[in-house]
Specification:
Cyt_P450_sf; Cyt_P450; alpha+beta; transmembrane; 6 strands
């Protein structure tokens, strides 16, 4: 239970940098279809992502450790959705 409490705490209160800029080294296409050109700067805000209802549901800003469990087993999230451990 401690691990899911930690995950939910980290989802809501990301440690480290709040923004994570990435330089674009070649023209690319993001998963949502957005085109990014070489030389652009793409920035995501991990703190804001932790409270996005589109990612986490209507209760995104609620402390809800059970969101990490399925049939009593911890279910890891994609590191692209749960960015708390890749912000450094």
């Amino acid at each position: 239970m401690m691990s899911v409490m930690g995950c939910d705490g980290d989802q809501l209160h990301v440690a480290g940098m709040w923004q994570d800029p990435k330089g674009v080294i070649a023209d690319d296409l993001l998963p949502d279809g957005t085109k990014v050109k070489k030389g652009s700067l793409v920035v995501y805000v991990a703190y804001a992502m932790g409270c996005m209802t589109a990612l986490w549901g209507a209760d995104a800003c609620d402390f809800k450790p059970e969101r990490w469990l399925k049939d009593g087993v911890v279910q890891p999230e994609s590191p692209f959705k749960f960015t708390a451990f890749q912000v450094f």
